[in-house]
Amino acid sequence: MWLILILLLTIFLLLLWYVDTRKPNNFPPGPKWLPIIGCAWELSNLHKAKGSLSEVAQELALKYGSVIGTKVGRTLTVFVYGTKAYKELLSKDDLNGRPDDIFSTSRTLGKRREQKKFLMRHLKETVFNKIVLEEILAEQVHTIIHDIKKTIESDGVICITNLFPVHALDSIYILMTGDKCSDQEMEELHKVMTSFSENISSTGMLFSHFPFLRYICPDYCGYNTYVNIHKKILAFISKKVKILKEICGPQPSRGFIQAYLEKINSVKGQSDFSEEELLAMCLDLLAAGFDTTSNTLGFTFLYLLLHPEVQERAQEEIDSVIGKGRPPTLEDRPQLPYVESIVLESIRLITSRSLALPRRAIRDSTLNGYFIPKDTILQGSVRGTFFDESTGWKNPEVFNPDRFMKDGNLCIPDTFIPFGSGKRRCVGEIMARANIFLIVACLLQTFNFRSLPGSPPKADFAEDFSPAVKPFKAFVTLR
Protein backbone atom coordinates (compact mmCIF):
# COMPACT_ATOMS: atom_id res chain seq x y z
CA MET A 1 0.00 0.00 0.00
CA TRP A 2 2.71 2.48 1.02
CA LEU A 3 4.76 1.54 -2.01
CA ILE A 4 1.81 2.34 -4.29
CA LEU A 5 1.27 5.71 -2.58
CA ILE A 6 4.97 6.60 -2.92
CA LEU A 7 4.88 5.56 -6.57
CA LEU A 8 1.78 7.66 -7.26
CA LEU A 9 3.32 10.65 -5.46
CA THR A 10 6.52 10.29 -7.47
CA ILE A 11 4.56 10.14 -10.73
CA PHE A 12 2.56 13.21 -9.68
CA LEU A 13 5.71 15.20 -8.84
CA LEU A 14 7.39 14.19 -12.10
CA LEU A 15 4.25 15.20 -14.02
CA LEU A 16 4.13 18.51 -12.15
CA TRP A 17 7.81 19.10 -12.92
CA TYR A 18 7.23 18.37 -16.62
CA VAL A 19 4.09 20.52 -16.98
CA ASP A 20 5.36 23.44 -14.90
CA THR A 21 8.74 23.65 -16.60
CA ARG A 22 7.62 23.09 -20.19
CA LYS A 23 7.95 26.21 -22.33
CA PRO A 24 5.51 27.09 -25.13
CA ASN A 25 6.74 26.27 -28.62
CA ASN A 26 9.01 29.00 -30.04
CA PHE A 27 8.87 30.95 -26.77
CA PRO A 28 11.86 33.33 -26.40
CA PRO A 29 15.01 31.75 -24.91
CA GLY A 30 15.82 32.39 -21.27
CA PRO A 31 16.76 30.88 -17.91
CA LYS A 32 15.55 27.40 -16.94
CA TRP A 33 12.22 27.13 -15.14
CA LEU A 34 11.72 25.35 -11.86
CA PRO A 35 8.32 24.06 -10.72
CA ILE A 36 6.10 26.65 -8.98
CA ILE A 37 8.70 29.44 -8.83
CA GLY A 38 9.81 29.42 -12.48
CA CYS A 39 13.09 31.35 -12.69
CA ALA A 40 12.27 33.73 -9.83
CA TRP A 41 15.28 32.55 -7.79
CA GLU A 42 17.77 33.25 -10.58
CA LEU A 43 16.22 36.65 -11.35
CA SER A 44 16.28 37.58 -7.66
CA ASN A 45 19.97 36.71 -7.36
CA LEU A 46 20.77 38.69 -10.51
CA HIS A 47 18.82 41.65 -9.14
CA LYS A 48 20.82 41.62 -5.91
CA ALA A 49 24.10 41.38 -7.81
CA LYS A 50 23.36 44.08 -10.39
CA GLY A 51 21.31 46.50 -8.30
CA SER A 52 18.57 47.29 -10.82
CA LEU A 53 16.20 45.38 -13.07
CA SER A 54 17.40 47.33 -16.10
CA GLU A 55 20.87 45.88 -15.54
CA VAL A 56 19.33 42.43 -15.04
CA ALA A 57 17.74 42.77 -18.48
CA GLN A 58 21.09 43.81 -19.90
CA GLU A 59 22.83 40.78 -18.38
CA LEU A 60 20.15 38.41 -19.70
CA ALA A 61 20.34 39.97 -23.17
CA LEU A 62 24.07 39.31 -23.35
CA LYS A 63 23.35 35.61 -22.80
CA TYR A 64 20.03 35.02 -24.56
CA GLY A 65 19.52 37.83 -27.07
CA SER A 66 17.24 40.87 -27.27
CA VAL A 67 14.02 39.03 -26.32
CA ILE A 68 14.24 36.92 -23.16
CA GLY A 69 11.53 34.55 -21.99
CA THR A 70 11.10 34.00 -18.26
CA LYS A 71 8.47 32.75 -15.86
CA VAL A 72 7.93 34.13 -12.36
CA GLY A 73 5.43 32.08 -10.40
CA ARG A 74 2.56 31.48 -12.83
CA THR A 75 3.30 34.57 -14.93
CA LEU A 76 5.07 34.45 -18.25
CA THR A 77 7.31 37.52 -18.45
CA VAL A 78 9.33 38.61 -21.47
CA PHE A 79 12.17 41.13 -21.17
CA VAL A 80 12.79 43.20 -24.29
CA TYR A 81 16.25 44.70 -24.70
CA GLY A 82 17.65 46.51 -27.72
CA THR A 83 16.41 49.21 -30.07
CA LYS A 84 14.93 47.02 -32.81
CA ALA A 85 12.98 44.71 -30.50
CA TYR A 86 11.84 47.55 -28.22
CA LYS A 87 10.49 49.60 -31.16
CA GLU A 88 8.62 46.53 -32.40
CA LEU A 89 7.10 46.10 -28.94
CA LEU A 90 5.93 49.73 -28.87
CA SER A 91 4.37 49.45 -32.32
CA LYS A 92 2.27 46.29 -31.85
CA ASP A 93 -1.30 46.74 -30.62
CA ASP A 94 -1.46 43.04 -29.72
CA LEU A 95 1.22 43.66 -27.06
CA ASN A 96 -0.17 46.95 -25.82
CA GLY A 97 -2.56 45.89 -23.07
CA ARG A 98 -2.65 47.09 -19.48
CA PRO A 99 -1.73 44.35 -16.96
CA ASP A 100 -4.82 43.04 -15.17
CA ASP A 101 -3.23 40.83 -12.53
CA ILE A 102 -3.61 41.10 -8.75
CA PHE A 103 -0.89 43.77 -8.61
CA SER A 104 -2.89 46.04 -10.92
CA THR A 105 -6.38 45.45 -9.57
CA SER A 106 -5.44 45.60 -5.86
CA ARG A 107 -4.35 49.22 -6.14
CA THR A 108 -7.88 50.41 -6.91
CA LEU A 109 -9.62 47.62 -4.99
CA GLY A 110 -11.22 46.37 -8.20
CA LYS A 111 -10.91 46.31 -11.98
CA ARG A 112 -9.86 49.18 -14.23
CA ARG A 113 -11.21 50.51 -17.51
CA GLU A 114 -9.13 52.39 -20.04
CA GLN A 115 -10.13 56.06 -20.41
CA LYS A 116 -6.87 57.60 -21.52
CA LYS A 117 -8.52 59.46 -24.41
CA PHE A 118 -10.64 61.54 -22.03
CA LEU A 119 -7.61 62.39 -19.89
CA MET A 120 -5.55 63.40 -22.94
CA ARG A 121 -8.36 65.58 -24.31
CA HIS A 122 -8.70 67.38 -20.99
CA LEU A 123 -4.95 67.94 -20.70
CA LYS A 124 -4.75 69.37 -24.22
CA GLU A 125 -7.66 71.72 -23.58
CA THR A 126 -6.44 72.96 -20.21
CA VAL A 127 -3.06 72.14 -18.70
CA PHE A 128 -1.16 71.80 -21.98
CA ASN A 129 -2.42 75.20 -23.07
CA LYS A 130 0.77 77.29 -23.08
CA ILE A 131 -0.63 80.11 -20.96
CA VAL A 132 -2.08 77.79 -18.30
CA LEU A 133 1.03 75.60 -18.22
CA GLU A 134 3.30 78.64 -17.88
CA GLU A 135 1.23 79.99 -14.97
CA ILE A 136 1.31 76.68 -13.10
CA LEU A 137 5.03 76.13 -13.54
CA ALA A 138 6.16 79.74 -13.01
CA GLU A 139 4.53 79.86 -9.60
CA GLN A 140 6.19 76.61 -8.58
CA VAL A 141 9.62 77.81 -9.72
CA HIS A 142 9.16 81.06 -7.81
CA THR A 143 8.49 79.03 -4.65
CA ILE A 144 11.65 76.92 -5.11
CA ILE A 145 13.79 80.03 -5.65
CA HIS A 146 12.28 81.63 -2.56
CA ASP A 147 13.07 78.54 -0.46
CA ILE A 148 16.67 78.45 -1.69
CA LYS A 149 17.20 82.14 -0.94
CA LYS A 150 15.98 81.60 2.62
CA THR A 151 18.52 78.80 3.10
CA ILE A 152 21.32 80.88 1.61
CA GLU A 153 20.76 83.43 4.40
CA SER A 154 22.16 80.86 6.84
CA ASP A 155 25.03 78.76 5.45
CA GLY A 156 24.03 78.07 1.84
CA VAL A 157 24.29 74.31 2.23
CA ILE A 158 21.20 72.70 0.72
CA CYS A 159 20.02 69.11 0.37
CA ILE A 160 19.20 69.26 -3.33
CA THR A 161 16.99 66.18 -3.36
CA ASN A 162 14.65 67.81 -0.81
CA LEU A 163 13.90 70.76 -3.09
CA PHE A 164 11.67 69.12 -5.67
CA PRO A 165 9.20 66.49 -4.30
CA VAL A 166 6.72 68.99 -2.80
CA HIS A 167 6.87 71.10 -5.95
CA ALA A 168 6.11 68.04 -8.11
CA LEU A 169 3.15 67.10 -5.92
CA ASP A 170 1.77 70.65 -5.96
CA SER A 171 1.89 70.71 -9.77
CA ILE A 172 -0.06 67.44 -10.00
CA TYR A 173 -2.53 68.66 -7.38
CA ILE A 174 -3.20 71.80 -9.44
CA LEU A 175 -3.64 69.63 -12.53
CA MET A 176 -6.24 67.52 -10.72
CA THR A 177 -8.13 70.24 -8.84
CA GLY A 178 -7.33 73.59 -10.46
CA ASP A 179 -6.19 74.93 -7.05
CA LYS A 180 -3.04 75.05 -4.94
CA CYS A 181 -2.66 72.55 -2.16
CA SER A 182 -2.94 73.88 1.39
CA ASP A 183 -0.03 73.32 3.77
CA GLN A 184 -2.00 70.78 5.78
CA GLU A 185 -3.10 68.87 2.69
CA MET A 186 0.43 68.92 1.29
CA GLU A 187 1.88 67.51 4.50
CA GLU A 188 -0.64 64.66 4.40
CA LEU A 189 -0.16 63.97 0.69
CA HIS A 190 3.64 64.20 0.81
CA LYS A 191 3.79 61.73 3.70
CA VAL A 192 1.72 59.07 1.95
CA MET A 193 3.40 59.54 -1.45
CA THR A 194 6.86 59.26 0.13
CA SER A 195 5.75 55.98 1.70
CA PHE A 196 4.45 54.90 -1.72
CA SER A 197 7.77 55.71 -3.39
CA GLU A 198 9.89 53.91 -0.81
CA ASN A 199 7.80 50.75 -0.43
CA ILE A 200 6.38 49.96 -3.85
CA SER A 201 8.11 48.85 -7.04
CA SER A 202 6.62 49.62 -10.44
CA THR A 203 7.63 46.15 -11.65
CA GLY A 204 5.78 44.20 -8.99
CA MET A 205 6.14 42.79 -5.50
CA LEU A 206 6.34 39.29 -4.06
CA PHE A 207 2.55 38.84 -3.81
CA SER A 208 2.07 39.94 -7.44
CA HIS A 209 4.16 36.99 -8.64
CA PHE A 210 2.79 34.52 -6.08
CA PRO A 211 -0.79 35.72 -5.33
CA PHE A 212 -1.52 32.90 -2.88
CA LEU A 213 0.97 34.46 -0.44
CA ARG A 214 -1.48 37.28 0.36
CA TYR A 215 -3.57 34.71 2.23
CA ILE A 216 -0.62 33.05 3.99
CA CYS A 217 1.74 35.92 4.87
CA PRO A 218 0.18 39.23 3.73
CA ASP A 219 2.70 41.34 5.65
CA TYR A 220 5.82 39.51 4.49
CA CYS A 221 4.82 39.42 0.80
CA GLY A 222 4.01 43.15 0.80
CA TYR A 223 0.26 42.80 0.15
CA ASN A 224 -0.91 44.64 3.27
CA THR A 225 1.57 47.48 2.75
CA TYR A 226 0.58 47.79 -0.91
CA VAL A 227 -3.17 47.88 -0.27
CA ASN A 228 -2.98 50.15 2.79
CA ILE A 229 -0.86 52.79 1.02
CA HIS A 230 -3.22 52.86 -1.93
CA LYS A 231 -6.22 53.10 0.40
CA LYS A 232 -4.69 56.22 1.97
CA ILE A 233 -4.05 57.83 -1.41
CA LEU A 234 -7.58 57.02 -2.61
CA ALA A 235 -9.04 58.37 0.64
CA PHE A 236 -7.18 61.66 0.13
CA ILE A 237 -8.44 61.99 -3.44
CA SER A 238 -11.97 60.98 -2.40
CA LYS A 239 -12.13 63.84 0.12
CA LYS A 240 -11.25 66.34 -2.60
CA VAL A 241 -13.77 64.84 -5.02
CA LYS A 242 -16.47 65.18 -2.39
CA ILE A 243 -15.64 68.88 -1.90
CA LEU A 244 -15.62 69.60 -5.63
CA LYS A 245 -18.94 67.80 -6.13
CA GLU A 246 -20.56 70.39 -3.88
CA ILE A 247 -19.39 73.26 -6.11
CA CYS A 248 -22.11 74.10 -8.58
CA GLY A 249 -21.35 75.18 -12.15
CA PRO A 250 -18.06 75.34 -14.06
CA GLN A 251 -15.12 77.10 -12.44
CA PRO A 252 -12.72 79.50 -14.19
CA SER A 253 -9.62 77.39 -13.41
CA ARG A 254 -11.09 73.91 -13.21
CA GLY A 255 -9.00 70.81 -12.93
CA PHE A 256 -9.35 67.27 -14.17
CA ILE A 257 -11.62 66.15 -11.30
CA GLN A 258 -14.27 68.75 -12.06
CA ALA A 259 -14.15 68.04 -15.79
CA TYR A 260 -14.64 64.34 -15.10
CA LEU A 261 -17.51 64.96 -12.67
CA GLU A 262 -19.25 67.04 -15.33
CA LYS A 263 -18.80 64.15 -17.77
CA ILE A 264 -20.40 61.74 -15.28
CA ASN A 265 -23.39 64.07 -14.91
CA SER A 266 -23.76 64.53 -18.66
CA VAL A 267 -23.97 60.81 -19.45
CA LYS A 268 -26.14 60.03 -16.39
CA GLY A 269 -24.78 56.58 -15.70
CA GLN A 270 -25.06 55.40 -19.30
CA SER A 271 -21.34 54.81 -19.78
CA ASP A 272 -18.21 53.54 -18.04
CA PHE A 273 -17.54 56.94 -16.45
CA SER A 274 -17.78 56.64 -12.66
CA GLU A 275 -16.32 58.09 -9.48
CA GLU A 276 -14.40 54.85 -8.91
CA GLU A 277 -12.68 55.28 -12.27
CA LEU A 278 -12.01 58.95 -11.48
CA LEU A 279 -10.24 57.99 -8.26
CA ALA A 280 -8.14 55.42 -10.11
CA MET A 281 -7.10 57.90 -12.81
CA CYS A 282 -6.09 60.50 -10.21
CA LEU A 283 -4.09 57.83 -8.42
CA ASP A 284 -2.30 57.12 -11.71
CA LEU A 285 -1.47 60.82 -12.12
CA LEU A 286 0.02 61.00 -8.63
CA ALA A 287 1.95 57.74 -8.95
CA ALA A 288 3.39 58.59 -12.36
CA GLY A 289 4.15 62.26 -11.78
CA PHE A 290 5.46 62.45 -8.21
CA ASP A 291 8.58 60.34 -8.49
CA THR A 292 9.60 60.86 -12.07
CA THR A 293 9.80 64.67 -12.16
CA SER A 294 11.47 65.16 -8.78
CA ASN A 295 13.90 62.27 -9.33
CA THR A 296 14.88 63.54 -12.79
CA LEU A 297 15.62 66.95 -11.29
CA GLY A 298 17.75 65.25 -8.65
CA PHE A 299 19.70 63.47 -11.41
CA THR A 300 20.10 66.74 -13.33
CA PHE A 301 21.60 68.74 -10.50
CA LEU A 302 23.82 65.86 -9.43
CA TYR A 303 25.35 65.83 -12.92
CA LEU A 304 25.65 69.63 -12.93
CA LEU A 305 27.66 69.41 -9.72
CA LEU A 306 29.85 66.65 -11.13
CA HIS A 307 30.33 68.60 -14.39
CA PRO A 308 30.71 72.30 -13.46
CA GLU A 309 31.78 73.12 -17.03
CA VAL A 310 28.29 72.10 -18.23
CA GLN A 311 26.67 74.36 -15.64
CA GLU A 312 28.85 77.31 -16.67
CA ARG A 313 28.13 76.83 -20.36
CA ALA A 314 24.38 76.72 -19.68
CA GLN A 315 24.61 79.91 -17.61
CA GLU A 316 26.48 81.64 -20.42
CA GLU A 317 23.70 80.68 -22.84
CA ILE A 318 21.01 81.96 -20.44
CA ASP A 319 22.88 85.23 -19.87
CA SER A 320 23.38 85.86 -23.58
CA VAL A 321 19.77 85.12 -24.54
CA ILE A 322 17.82 86.45 -21.54
CA GLY A 323 20.17 88.27 -19.21
CA LYS A 324 19.07 88.77 -15.63
CA GLY A 325 16.24 91.24 -16.07
CA ARG A 326 13.49 88.63 -16.30
CA PRO A 327 13.10 84.90 -15.62
CA PRO A 328 13.20 82.37 -18.46
CA THR A 329 9.86 81.25 -19.90
CA LEU A 330 8.75 78.35 -22.06
CA GLU A 331 8.85 80.71 -25.04
CA ASP A 332 12.64 80.84 -24.60
CA ARG A 333 13.15 77.10 -25.14
CA PRO A 334 14.04 77.34 -28.86
CA GLN A 335 16.71 79.94 -28.00
CA LEU A 336 18.16 77.83 -25.16
CA PRO A 337 19.08 74.58 -26.94
CA TYR A 338 21.96 73.72 -24.59
CA VAL A 339 19.75 74.02 -21.50
CA GLU A 340 17.19 71.81 -23.23
CA SER A 341 19.93 69.32 -24.10
CA ILE A 342 20.82 69.07 -20.39
CA VAL A 343 17.19 68.16 -19.68
CA LEU A 344 17.14 65.51 -22.42
CA GLU A 345 20.45 63.99 -21.35
CA SER A 346 19.25 63.76 -17.73
CA ILE A 347 16.03 62.08 -18.88
CA ARG A 348 18.08 59.66 -20.99
CA LEU A 349 20.26 58.63 -18.07
CA ILE A 350 17.52 58.27 -15.46
CA THR A 351 15.25 56.23 -17.73
CA SER A 352 18.23 54.03 -18.62
CA ARG A 353 18.18 52.84 -15.01
CA SER A 354 14.60 51.58 -15.16
CA LEU A 355 12.26 49.33 -17.10
CA ALA A 356 9.33 50.79 -19.01
CA LEU A 357 5.89 50.25 -17.51
CA PRO A 358 4.81 46.65 -18.14
CA ARG A 359 2.56 45.72 -21.03
CA ARG A 360 0.35 42.68 -21.56
CA ALA A 361 -0.28 40.61 -24.67
CA ILE A 362 -4.02 40.91 -25.26
CA ARG A 363 -3.94 38.00 -27.71
CA ASP A 364 -1.42 35.45 -29.01
CA SER A 365 1.21 37.33 -30.99
CA THR A 366 4.85 37.38 -32.03
CA LEU A 367 7.87 39.53 -31.22
CA ASN A 368 11.20 39.40 -33.00
CA GLY A 369 10.06 36.10 -34.54
CA TYR A 370 9.18 34.46 -31.21
CA PHE A 371 5.74 33.34 -30.02
CA ILE A 372 4.19 35.48 -27.28
CA PRO A 373 1.15 33.81 -25.66
CA LYS A 374 -1.87 35.83 -24.59
CA ASP A 375 -1.53 37.49 -21.14
CA THR A 376 2.27 37.38 -21.21
CA ILE A 377 3.75 40.43 -19.41
CA LEU A 378 6.34 42.33 -21.44
CA GLN A 379 9.02 44.45 -19.75
CA GLY A 380 10.76 46.79 -22.17
CA SER A 381 14.20 48.08 -21.22
CA VAL A 382 14.93 51.66 -22.24
CA ARG A 383 18.54 50.96 -21.28
CA GLY A 384 18.80 48.64 -24.25
CA THR A 385 17.97 51.55 -26.53
CA PHE A 386 19.96 54.35 -24.89
CA PHE A 387 23.04 52.20 -24.31
CA ASP A 388 23.11 50.87 -27.87
CA GLU A 389 26.24 52.32 -29.49
CA SER A 390 25.21 50.91 -32.88
CA THR A 391 22.36 53.46 -33.00
CA GLY A 392 24.62 56.43 -32.32
CA TRP A 393 24.83 56.64 -28.52
CA LYS A 394 28.62 56.92 -28.17
CA ASN A 395 30.02 56.47 -24.64
CA PRO A 396 26.43 56.07 -23.39
CA GLU A 397 27.25 55.97 -19.67
CA VAL A 398 28.85 59.43 -19.79
CA PHE A 399 26.78 62.55 -19.07
CA ASN A 400 27.16 64.55 -22.28
CA PRO A 401 24.47 67.07 -23.30
CA ASP A 402 26.34 67.69 -26.57
CA ARG A 403 24.97 64.43 -27.92
CA PHE A 404 21.72 66.39 -28.45
CA MET A 405 23.45 69.33 -30.17
CA LYS A 406 24.40 69.74 -33.83
CA ASP A 407 25.78 72.95 -35.34
CA GLY A 408 24.59 74.94 -32.34
CA ASN A 409 21.00 73.65 -32.58
CA LEU A 410 19.01 71.05 -30.71
CA CYS A 411 19.00 67.69 -32.50
CA ILE A 412 16.94 64.83 -31.03
CA PRO A 413 17.73 61.34 -32.45
CA ASP A 414 14.87 59.08 -33.57
CA THR A 415 16.01 56.56 -30.97
CA PHE A 416 15.24 58.97 -28.10
CA ILE A 417 12.00 57.41 -26.82
CA PRO A 418 12.06 57.67 -23.00
CA PHE A 419 8.30 58.26 -22.86
CA GLY A 420 7.40 55.37 -25.12
CA SER A 421 5.29 55.71 -28.24
CA GLY A 422 1.90 54.75 -29.59
CA LYS A 423 -1.23 54.31 -27.47
CA ARG A 424 0.70 53.82 -24.22
CA ARG A 425 2.91 56.90 -24.64
CA CYS A 426 3.27 58.74 -21.34
CA VAL A 427 0.53 61.38 -21.00
CA GLY A 428 2.74 63.56 -18.81
CA GLU A 429 5.58 64.01 -21.31
CA ILE A 430 4.72 67.61 -22.24
CA MET A 431 4.34 68.77 -18.66
CA ALA A 432 7.40 66.86 -17.42
CA ARG A 433 9.76 68.24 -20.03
CA ALA A 434 8.41 71.78 -19.62
CA ASN A 435 8.62 71.51 -15.85
CA ILE A 436 12.23 70.29 -15.78
CA PHE A 437 13.37 72.81 -18.40
CA LEU A 438 11.88 75.80 -16.59
CA ILE A 439 13.29 74.81 -13.19
CA VAL A 440 16.77 74.16 -14.57
CA ALA A 441 16.83 77.41 -16.57
CA CYS A 442 15.51 79.58 -13.73
CA LEU A 443 17.74 78.07 -11.03
CA LEU A 444 20.88 78.32 -13.16
CA GLN A 445 20.02 81.93 -13.99
CA THR A 446 19.72 82.77 -10.29
CA PHE A 447 22.23 80.53 -8.48
CA ASN A 448 25.60 78.82 -8.67
CA PHE A 449 25.65 75.20 -7.49
CA ARG A 450 28.96 73.84 -6.23
CA SER A 451 30.09 70.68 -4.48
CA LEU A 452 30.85 70.97 -0.80
CA PRO A 453 34.60 71.56 -0.31
CA GLY A 454 36.31 68.20 0.05
CA SER A 455 33.03 66.33 -0.22
CA PRO A 456 31.84 65.95 -3.82
CA PRO A 457 28.56 64.06 -4.24
CA LYS A 458 28.65 60.44 -5.31
CA ALA A 459 26.56 59.01 -8.12
CA ASP A 460 24.72 56.64 -5.78
CA PHE A 461 21.29 55.53 -6.84
CA ALA A 462 18.30 53.87 -5.22
CA GLU A 463 15.68 51.73 -6.95
CA ASP A 464 12.40 53.04 -5.53
CA PHE A 465 9.15 53.25 -7.52
CA SER A 466 11.34 54.96 -10.11
CA PRO A 467 15.15 55.37 -10.08
CA ALA A 468 16.33 58.00 -7.61
CA VAL A 469 19.65 59.54 -6.68
CA LYS A 470 20.46 59.15 -3.01
CA PRO A 471 20.29 62.40 -0.97
CA PHE A 472 23.16 64.81 -1.56
CA LYS A 473 24.03 68.38 -0.58
CA ALA A 474 25.45 71.33 -2.47
CA PHE A 475 26.80 74.78 -1.67
CA VAL A 476 24.50 77.32 -3.32
CA THR A 477 25.22 81.03 -3.86
CA LEU A 478 23.45 83.87 -5.61
CA ARG A 479 24.95 84.79 -8.97
Automatic annotation (TrEMBL):
Transmembrane segments: none annotated. Heme binds at C426. InterPro entries: Cyt_P450, Cyt_P450_CS, Cyt_P450_E_grp-I, Cyt_P450_sf, Cytochrome_P450_fam2. Its cofactor is heme. It is found in: Endoplasmic reticulum membrane; Microsome membrane. It is a peripheral membrane protein. Residues 1-21 form the signal peptide. Its main location: endoplasmic reticulum. GO terms for molecular function: heme binding; iron ion binding; oxidoreductase activity, acting on paired donors, with incorporation or reduction of molecular oxygen, reduced flavin or flavoprotein as one donor, and incorporation of one atom of oxygen; steroid hydroxylase activity. The keyword Oxidoreductase applies. One of its GO terms (biological process) is organic acid metabolic process. The keyword Heme applies. It comes from the Eukaryota. Pfam families: p450 (PF00067). GO terms for cellular component: endoplasmic reticulum membrane. May be involved in the metabolism of insect hormones and in the breakdown of synthetic insecticides. PANTHER family: CYTOCHROME P450 15A1, CYTOCHROME P450 508A4-RELATED. Belongs to the cytochrome P450 family. This is Cytochrome P450.
